[in-house]
Design goal:
The complex is a heterodimer of chains A (645) and B (626). Chain A is an alpha+beta fold and 645 residues long. Helix content of chain A is 16%, strand content 40%. By secondary structure, chain B is of the alpha+beta class. In chain B, strand 21 and strand 22 form a beta hairpin. Classes of the chains: A alpha+beta (645), B alpha+beta (626). The interface between A and B is large, with 87 and 70 residues.
């Protein structure tokens, strides 16, 4: 994670000048006449100005609150940019809810050389309660045409000052000027993390407000920010955005006592353990005791115990779909109802492991959607799994998915690193990225007849993540669809006698066996047969077509695919041309491809192995990777030529 | 946002009971086939008490066989709830959970809509096992008798039905009516007594998804119910005929909404000043609306049926389909061009208003301008669609014209096979290493215009991606892409310069390559072991290609594909390859697919036709060094 760095606000005196070109609350003729963004001439719209200021206030009943004031000014260049004139703000709408108020919203147009401003009245503001805990405020700005400038300003009041919403500088459109300001009374201390590839200018000063005589004001500013674009094979685009994140580290009470919030990993671990919804839940065992005693009766091997417990929880419990490392109903109730959130299911699992005297701990995780937790904090995480230390290393478990296995985690969990919270209070960083090589093995025994019709038998074995993917895909598939999908994937073939084994027999690799017939694999031209020795299994296109790459290529897990073809050519034909064997590798054995072909009498034997030994490839190796795929695809598209004897 | 909320709702578990009749094992095998869920029993008792009130009692038992069947528990209500409850049983019929009214959740129906006042109450349940059976009971009431429920015993694919019953009780003075559809394939029992009618369906096997099959509504039995004298949001209405229904909608929904300020009127008049042709006037105004409005979905007022006032649209510059259509109508009216607000079903799958059953239907509004014996149709929600062009979303179907008098159903523009053309013209040069360099121009009209015009305004990166998928050429590099949208001719032109390394295989000192480099119709429809539904090709199209291929000097043709000429009831496919000089070859191709509906057995023939096309499109030429 080389793009993440940590800022220490103290001592950082910035150099930036207050020289933003664009002002909020007005639009100039020049701005309205602008035809395209100087940052990216193809952009449909651009943010000319965005400023978010977080301040502290006291509520009427004397509680601390934050009030965040956001101002945004957007230039719309063409019709494809019209949706930027609609804005929605999601907010927390549960007990002690946030309050969002729109203070201004206007559109500027150039009419006969004059700047005309249209204000949005109440009629263009809408509130929707999405569910019990989430509300949405929406505005639709009036009178938008190509060239318009829209601006709006809103405030968000919140009791959740423990964690201030992450500020992202980069957007999917260009940003001319973006500033994030935090004004914090000195009785509060915050840890600041920054991430992404851009370095904001930082300025700090001392200020005062209605609620505090002394405050620390920090200004983070970036200008002329290029739009951020998604690429294939990436996890979460937000992970790559330049961002500022603040997390409460201390609070000085009126009597002078200092309440410290987690700012190093041991205290994070401790504060999480101290939560009733976490540590207390982990220490309970009476509710499962008799069931687990019965389950483990006569079993002594730790490995077997772990597997029995994992299978038990996985089959008993049903995940509500809610992610959190804190229990909501509590493990006992969840156990009785057989329904739970992530924490209930996996803390229960950890407790059972411990009860069985296995060296188990919970592991805090931030899911792919949630981004990456880099700084010691409680709020960076949103998920928990279990880990057991064994003689052969650490094994990770997640019992929320019906398809996960020891060390085979659902894909939303595979997000760099997690923190293992041990009994003695440490929070050890552990890798969540799979190390074992998932394998896919295809064995094809086939025959070509004199009309070029291919008949063959295919055996496929899929292990680890390949098996996991098949199981997940199959659960989402209607009956009979499987064969149809396979026929679609392989092109114009007919599949018969399809048998799949171990689909629901979790730890085992999945085996598939089928017969296939195809009359379109061979081109017969002038009495010669042309065909690909990999038959219908060749990789015909390079998945990497972009000319350049900004973000790492994330495969999630290392893998190996192997295909062995034994093909009988028709009687009366001889081989006129056969491709050469070849080996291609990326430096440091990151990826390797080998293609071995031999012809003997009327039989062709081909063995192809493709290995990807890393789960993540850095962006600067993109060119090499693209070339590697090119070599592979070129080789796999070469044809054998047969002629009549 | 890093704030997590956790919510979970549990029912009160009290006395647990057993219902062995719900056991999964009792479902007959033919209902399990292709089913993700089985409706064991469904009864709706609808009582219309007056013009302004009806009640529905629902009792439904659904066995959910797997995760995919979960969505079919259908435990939700949009009407006012008097009572609602549900009980869950396991596969053997043992009760595992009970849900009372307070366990149900309420939320806004916000899908696809920016603003709405519609709300839904639903059961938020996490299944603990499959299969399970849900017994759901509710009683609801509603005052909008314009929206009586209809009866769809099968409302989804992959769901089978053991028994489904609807019973309606109605007063004799409101002109109660019904119409049954697709009864010929299913055994439906009807019972009718004075002021009562009921329908019962039994033992209907699940419907499988098949490509190129007609929409579900053309396959399953259903019954529509309605009142000639109904009420909508407190306003009495009349649905005796489409004409009277149209007049009513005009009075209630449109009148009073079509006024704009004098300034706007003057501006509009000035815009069209000097223009006498009403169609040209209409075009100026349509483009004016396109330039200063945008679509924002707002579903408020009279069940979401009343358009925003034209004066509000004029001020705000946005609205939904109703508002923007009505605004355009208002402006046209200012300059004396008559036009009609038209209700329609908008969907890429064609769906008609029911010609012989007058009721509240449709989900979209377009505008019709009468010209002689025909209409010019305007889609008012798009900022880029050409004047008078509808495209796939609203073509070839019945729309209801809303007029004070003389309203009724009319068919929208039909795109015939010959209207939907694509001309591909280009050349490519192949060198001895197998690399190609070439250019191509593609002109699209009709429905093909509709599909391609979405490319306008896309970024270079997006276009690059699009063409890398569009052409089946490996290692493709796009040197130049230009797209031109001619809205007057309704023609979309793409001009592309491209090159690709190793397009041809070079094994054995030969160059082998697919002649048709620019327009392969390579997708072959799914094969079905036993095709159940008819084959439906909803729209036809015609492609014409002419490609010049320059081959390197010193090479001669070793082999070339045959000329094809396939003629079937589904369409025709023709190719012609001619060498005009030692280094130039001309490849001509035409592909015409007709629209039509065919018997299920024909599906395999159609698939074979497509298979033959795919193979011929990929046919290779071999060049050998002289």
């Amino acid at each position: 994670m080389k793009n993440i760095y940590i800022l220490f606000v103290v001592g950082f005196i910035g150099l930036y000048a207050d020289a933003q070109e664009y002002k909020f609350g007005k639009a100039t003729v020049q701005e309205l006449q602008q035809k395209f963004s100087p940052i990216d001439s193809t952009a449909d719209a651009a943010i000319l100005y965005k400023r978010e200021v977080v301040k502290f206030i006291l509520s009427s009943d004397n509680y601390w609150k934050t009030i965040t004031e956001t101002e945004v000014k957007i230039k719309i260049y063409n019709k494809n940019g019209y949706h930027h004139a609609n804005f929605e703000k999601y907010y927390y709408d549960g007990p002690n809810k946030d309050e969002v108020v729109f203070l201004a919203a206007s559109t500027y147009n150039l009419v006969n050389g004059e700047v005309v401003k249209t204000d949005l009245k109440k009629e263009g503001q809408f509130t929707i309660q999405k569910n019990k805990y989430t509300g949405i405020k929406r505005i639709a700005l009036p009178n938008v045409t190509e060239g318009s400038i829209v601006e709006y300003k809103y405030t968000t009041e919140s009791y959740r000052f423990e964690s201030i919403d992450t500020y992202y500088f980069e957007e999917e459109i260009p940003v001319e000027w973006s500033q994030f300001v935090v004004k914090v009374p000195i009785i509060f201390g915050y840890n600041v993390t920054a991430g992404g590839s851009l370095m904001p200018e930082i300025k700090s000063e001392v200020g005062k407000s209605k609620v505090a005589d002394s405050e620390k004001w920090t200004f983070f500013t970036l200008t002329k920010i290029k739009p951020i674009k998604a690429e294939s094979y990436i996890s979460n685009l937000n992970n790559y955005k330049t961002l500022i994140n603040l997390e409460l580290s201390k609070y000085v009470k009126y009597d002078g006592t200092v309440i410290k919030y987690a700012s190093d990993w041991p205290s994070v671990a401790k504060s999480i353990f101290n939560l009733d919804s976490f540590g207390k839940q982990l220490n309970k065992s009476s509710y499962f005791k008799s069931d687990i005693d019965a389950l483990l009766a006569g079993v002594s091997s730790p490995e077997e115990k772990a597997n029995l417990i994992f299978n038990f929880v996985q089959s008993r419990m049903n995940w509500t779909g809610y992610a959190s490392y804190q229990c909501y109903e509590g493990v006992e109730k969840a156990y009785a109802n057989k329904i739970g959130n992530v924490a209930e299911i996996n803390l229960m699992l950890t407790a059972m492991f411990r009860y069985a005297k296995l060296n188990a701990d919970p592991v805090l995780v931030s899911t792919v959607d949630n981004g990456i937790a880099v700084f010691p904090s409680r709020t960076g995480f949103n998920y928990v799994i279990a880990a057991i230390s064994t003689e052969n290393g650490q094994i990770l478990y997640d019992a929320t998915s019906k398809f996960s296995q020891p060390n085979i985690l659902p894909k939303h969990v595979i997000n760099w690193t997690g923190r293992r919270l041990t009994k003695n209070g440490t929070a050890e960083e552990i890798s969540l990225m799979p190390k074992m090589i998932s394998k896919n093995f295809n064995s094809i025994v086939a025959k070509l007849d004199q009309n070029g019709v291919l008949n063959g038998n295919v055996k496929v074995q899929s292990t680890d993540y390949f098996a996991h993917n098949l199981r997940e895909a199959n659960a989402q598939r209607a009956k009979e669809k499987h064969i149809e999908d396979l026929e679609k994937k392989l092109g114009n073939v007919e599949i018969n006698d399809y048998v799949i084994a171990n689909l629901n027999d979790l730890p085992k690799p999945i085996s598939e066996n089928y017969n296939l017939t195809s009359n379109s694999t061979v081109d017969i031209i002038n009495g010669k047969m042309y065909f690909n020795p990999l038959l219908v299994f060749a990789t015909s296109y390079n998945p990497f077509t972009d000319n350049e790459r900004k973000y790492p290529i994330n495969y999630r897990y290392p893998f190996q695919t192997r295909s062995v073809v034994n093909l009988d050519i028709p009687a009366g034909y001889a081989i006129e041309f056969i491709p050469q064997s070849k080996v291609v590798a990326m430096p440091d054995n990151v990826a390797k491809y080998s293609y071995n072909i031999v012809a003997k009498d009327n039989q062709i034997q081909l063995s192809v192995i493709f290995e990807m030994n890393k789960s993540v490839i850095p962006a600067d190796e993109y060119e090499t990777l693209k070339r590697f795929y090119n070599e592979m695809v070129t080789k796999e598209n070469e044809k054998i030529i047969l002629h009549k004897i | 946002m890093r704030f997590t909320v956790f919510l979970l709702i549990f029912g009160v578990s009290s006395v647990f009971a057993q219902k062995p009749e719900y056991a999964t094992t009792l479902i007959s095998a033919n209902l399990i086939d292709n089913a993700n869920a089985v409706v064991r029993f469904h009864q709706s008792d609808v009582t219309i008490t007056s013009r302004s009130n009806y009640n529905i009692k629902t009792s439904r038992v659904v066995t959910v066989l797997n995760e995919l069947g979960f969505q079919h528990i259908n435990a939700q209500e949009y009407r006012t709830i008097k009572s609602i409850e549900a009980t869950i049983y396991d596969g053997s019929g043992n009760e595992i959970k009970k849900f009372k009214r307070k366990d149900f959740r309420e939320s806004a129906v916000s899908e696809g809509s920016m603003i709405t006042d519609n709300r839904v109450t639903y059961l938020d349940y996490t299944p603990t096992q499959y299969p399970f059976t849900i017994v759901y009971q509710s009683e609801t009431t509603d005052s909008n008798t314009a929206f009586l429920p209809s009866w769809y015993p099968v409302n989804s694919k992959f769901v089978s039905v053991e028994k489904s019953v609807v019973k309606i009780r109605y007063p004799s003075d409101l002109g109660f009516k019904y119409k049954a559809y697709n009864f010929e394939n299913s055994a439906i029992q009807k019972e009718e007594t004075t002021n009562n009618i009921s329908f019962t369906a039994q033992n209907i096997a699940a419907i499988k998804d098949e490509s190129y099959s007609p929409s579900l509504e053309k396959l399953v039995p259903y019954v529509l119910f309605g009142l000639e004298k109904f009420r909508l949001e407190g306003v009495d209405g009349d649905a005796k005929s489409w004409e009277s229904f149209s007049a009513w909608q005009y009075n209630v929904l449109l009148s009073g909404t079509d006024e704009v300020s004098i300034e706007t009127q003057n501006k509009i008049k000035a815009l069209t000043n000097g223009e006498t042709d009403p169609i040209k006037k209409a075009k100026i105004i349509y483009e004016y609306v396109q330039n200063r409005t945008r679509y924002v979905s707002i579903q408020l007022g009279i069940g979401g049926w009343k358009p925003m006032k034209a004066s509000d649209v004029d001020r705000l510059g946005y609205g939904d389909c109703k508002a923007l259509t009505n605004y355009t109508r208002t402006l046209l009216n200012v300059v004396g061009v008559p036009s009609y607000y038209a209700v329609i079903w908008g969907d890429r799958e064609k769906k008609n208003m029911e010609q012989d059953f007058v009721s509240t239907e449709g989900n979209h509004i377009i505008l019709a301008i009468p010209v002689e014996n025909n209409f010019i149709w305007l889609e008012c929600t798009s900022q880029s669609i050409p004047f008078g062009f509808l495209g796939l979303f609203t073509d070839d179907r019945l729309a209801l014209l809303i007029k004070p008098t003389g309203g009724g159903l009319v068919r929208t523009q039909i795109y015939k096979t010959d209207d939907n053309t694509q001309y591909t013209k280009g050349k490519y040069t192949i060198d001895p290493t197998g690399n190609i360099i070439g250019n191509v121009e593609i002109k699209s009209k009709g429905t093909q215009y509709d599909t391609k015009s979405a490319l306008q305004g896309r970024s270079n990166d997006e276009l690059d991606q699009f063409y890398k998928n569009y052409f089946t050429i490996n290692n493709l590099k796009l040197d130049k892409i230009a797209v031109v949208n001619d809205k007057d001719k309704v023609e979309f032109t793409e001009t592309i310069l491209l090159k690709a390394d190793r397009y041809a295989n070079t094994e054995n000192a030969r160059l082998m390559f697919a002649v048709n480099a620019f327009n392969q119709f390579s997708q072959i429809p799914q094969r079905y072991r036993s095709r159940i539904h008819p084959l439906e090709i909803s729209r036809g199209f015609a492609d014409y290609d002419e490609i010049t291929i320059a081959i390197p000097e010193g090479y001669s043709i070793d082999a070339k594909p045959n000329n094809y000429n396939l003629e079937t009831k589904f369409g025709t496919y023709k190719t012609e390859i001619e060498q005009i000089n030692p280094t130039q070859i001309i490849y001509k191709r035409s592909l015409i697919i007709n629209s039509g509906r065919f018997e299920p057995v024909e599906y395999e023939n159609y698939r074979k036709f497509r298979e033959a096309i795919a193979k011929a499109d990929n046919a290779k030429m071999v060049l050998v060094k002289i």
